[in-house]
Amino acid sequence: MGRHFDAAFLGRIRADLATRSLEELAEVQKRGSGLLPSPRTAGDTTADFVYNPVTPCRIINTLLAGGPIAAGTTRSFRVTGTNFSAQGGTAGNCNVPVGATGAVINFVAVAPAGAGDLRYTPFGIPVPTASFLNYVNSGIPNDNVANGMTFPICNPATTTCTSDFTIQADVSGTDVVADVQGFFRRVTLTAPVKSVTFNQVALNGFTCVNHSQITIVAPSAGFVTVRGDAEVQLNHTTGTTTEVVPILGATATACSTTVSGNFFVSMSGSAPSGTYFFETSSSGRFAVAAGSNTFFLNALQTSGATGSGVIFSGGLEAVFTPN
Questions:
Q1: Which of 19, 145, 201, 224 is most buried per CB count within 10 Å?
Q2: Are 222 and 320 in contact (CB under 8 A)?
Q3: Could you give the CA distance from residue 220 to residue 175 in angstroms, rounded to a whole number?
Q4: What average pLDDT score do residues 73-97 get?
Q5: Which residues contact 175 (CB under 8 A, 6 or more apart)?
């Protein structure tokens, strides 16, 4: 294109392209413009974050629960999930799902004891030196100070999030009221394609063998679509029928042939004797809970006890989508 790109940009482009399927890369080449395939979902950014507004909902009211945050102390709160009554908020659902990693929150410092500020950090991360809200005690009744902005919150994909964020009051304590107005969540999550060399295990008789696996950390409940590619060698003898199926499963010994997208590799008894190679794919869609989920590419010889098959190599890809 006759232009130079900075190293960070090139690194991001290369990292993205490395996660794409051959079909997506072919789309880029066919289009002839742009360095990246079309976004996987509407609104994707480089991190696949999409903003989801919610009806403003009270998550914190220390006037009703907990009392003022004292000067020099911290207190942790939730914004995801349901029932915020322990924080003085609504007892219902504010519609911010576990797995969101950012939220738009409006905070109000109510009746501060004196001049001071509030500092914010995602749960589990040290409190910064910068404040997001400064307040004074003017002596005027109901002279409260508010500030609303987008805040990062604890990421359950990387951290054990018993709370979502932590607030620290400095210099003087204050009561705090807060309402959530929206959240950000990554709508797709792709595990890097795992290129593997499978165990070259002869499949003599009716056997089920685990050859490779891939793990993806789901930020919330949803679905994972997994695809596996393999090259199968069949050592065929005339008069026998040899069939091998690559199968995806959620356990190392899952060899049910009912998962959508499995392809049989089969040689009939009338075919000439010899060694045959096939490239096959297997894919499936699995309901998952939040957290780490591992999927296995297995192989099953479904018939042909006198024949044998060997799976040589392949790759696995997993893509998460929320409910």
A1: 224
A2: yes
A3: 32
A4: 93
A5: 62, 63, 67, 68, 69, 109, 110, 111, 112
Tokens 């000067």 locate to: 71
For the segment 236-278, what is each residue's pLDDT rounded down to a tens digit?
Answer: 777 777 677 777 777 766 665 544 455 567 778 788 888 887 7
The backbone region for 196, taken as left when phi is positive above 0, alpha when psi lies in -120 to 50, beta otherwise, is beta
List beta partners, residue 128: none
Residue 193's closest CA among 52, 72, 22?
Answer: 22
**How many beta carbons lie within 10 A of that of residue 130, not counting itself?**
8
Q: Which of 242, 212, 214, 235 is nearest to 313 (CA)?
A: 212
Cβ-contact 105, 89 below 8 angstroms: no
Output the pTM of the full model.
Answer: 0.52
Each residue's pLDDT tens digit, 138-178: 888 778 999 999 999 988 767 778 899 999 999 999 999 99
Look at the alpha carbons of 113, 119, 121, 124 in this order and tell me if their dihedral is positive or negative: negative
Equal fold, 49-186 vs 189-322:
yes
Write the DSSP assignment of 181-203 as a string of letters. EEEEEES-EEEEEEEEE------
Q: Which two tokens stand for residue 109?
A: 């410092």
Instruction: Give the three-state DSSP class for 62.
Output: coil
Distances (CA, A) of 151 to 105, 127, 183: 7, 13, 9
- The CATH class of 49-186 is mainly beta
Q: In this structure, which topology does domain 189-322 adopt according to CATH?
A: Jelly Rolls (2.60.120)
**Type and span of the H or E element at 109:** strand 102-110
**Domain extent listing, the chain:** 49-186, 189-322
